Amino acid sequence: MSNKADPQANQQASQQSIAEHAVAALYQRDRASQQLGMRVTECRPGFARVVMKITGDMVNGHQVCHGGLVFTLADSAFAFACNSHDRSTVAASATIEFLGPARAGDELTAVASERWRSRRSGIYEIEVTNQRGETIALFRGRSHEVGGPVVT
Amino acid sequence: MSNKADPQANQQASQQSIAEHAVAALYQRDRASQQLGMRVTECRPGFARVVMKITGDMVNGHQVCHGGLVFTLADSAFAFACNSHDRSTVAASATIEFLGPARAGDELTAVASERWRSRRSGIYEIEVTNQRGETIALFRGRSHEVGGPVVT
Amino acid sequence: MSNKADPQANQQASQQSIAEHAVAALYQRDRASQQLGMRVTECRPGFARVVMKITGDMVNGHQVCHGGLVFTLADSAFAFACNSHDRSTVAASATIEFLGPARAGDELTAVASERWRSRRSGIYEIEVTNQRGETIALFRGRSHEVGGPVVT
Amino acid sequence: MSNKADPQANQQASQQSIAEHAVAALYQRDRASQQLGMRVTECRPGFARVVMKITGDMVNGHQVCHGGLVFTLADSAFAFACNSHDRSTVAASATIEFLGPARAGDELTAVASERWRSRRSGIYEIEVTNQRGETIALFRGRSHEVGGPVVT
Question: Does the residue A2 lie in any domain?
Answer without folding.
Answer: no
